[in-house]
Amino acid sequence: MKHMPIHRIAGLGSGIVLDRILDWNPPRRDPPDLIMARQALDGRRLAEAERHLQRALDTAPDCAEVRTLMGLLHEQLGEHHAAYRCYRLALMLDREDTVASDGILRYCRRFGYDPGSKAINPCAEEPA
């Protein structure tokens, strides 16, 4: 039996179309609690944001964005040390998290710490 290309079997026409379909990455789908937490934080509904973030933490404890949003929540509540801990953990999970990095900088300015210190900031550069 002669082998037929997969795109012909699937009825997709040319191989170029199939290549485009196979290379397609669907957009990121955030969990509903993460979406609701963002909306609640934007609307300054802090108790609601906390509920959604707690549920998001239960399902994705290693998600840097959840930790960052929790840091923003603590910061809005005036709980600066708790916010710092969240930002620090977020940066340990994702060194590219600019929101968490900005949160660390605000914390350092508020309390007089050196943001370039590895002991304070996990993204600080190593001394040359």
Q: Would you mind describing this structure in some detail?
A:
With 128 residues, this protein is mainly alpha-helical. It has a domain at 32-111: Tetratricopeptide repeat domain (Serine Threonine Protein Phosphatase 5, Tetratricopeptide repeat, Alpha Horseshoe). Helix content is 62%, strand content 0%. It is built from seven helices and no strands. Helix 4 (46-59) packs antiparallel against helix 5 (64-76). The longest helix is centred in the middle third of the chain and has 14 residues, at 46-59. It is globular and about 40 Å long. The protein starts with 5 loop residues before the first helix and ends in a 17-residue tail after the last helix. The model is unreliable at 4-13 (pLDDT under 50).
Give unreliable regions as ranges.
Answer: 4-13
Q: What structural category characterises the helix and strand content?
A: mainly alpha
Helix content: 55-70%
Oligomeric category: single chain
Main beta-sheet annotation: none
Please give the CATH class of the domain at 32-111. Mainly Alpha
Helices, by number, come to 7
Would you tell me which CATH topology of the domain at 32-111 applies?
Answer: Serine Threonine Protein Phosphatase 5, Tetratricopeptide repeat
Please give the CATH architecture of the domain at 32-111: Alpha Horseshoe
Q: What general outline do the C-alpha atoms trace?
A: globular
Classified in CATH, the superfamily of the domain at 32-111 is Tetratricopeptide repeat domain
Order of helices and strands: HHHHHHH
Overall average pLDDT:
84
The tally of beta strands, per DSSP, is 0
Amino-to-carboxy terminus distance: 66 Å
Q: Rg, please? A: 22 Å
Portion of residues in beta strands equals under 5%
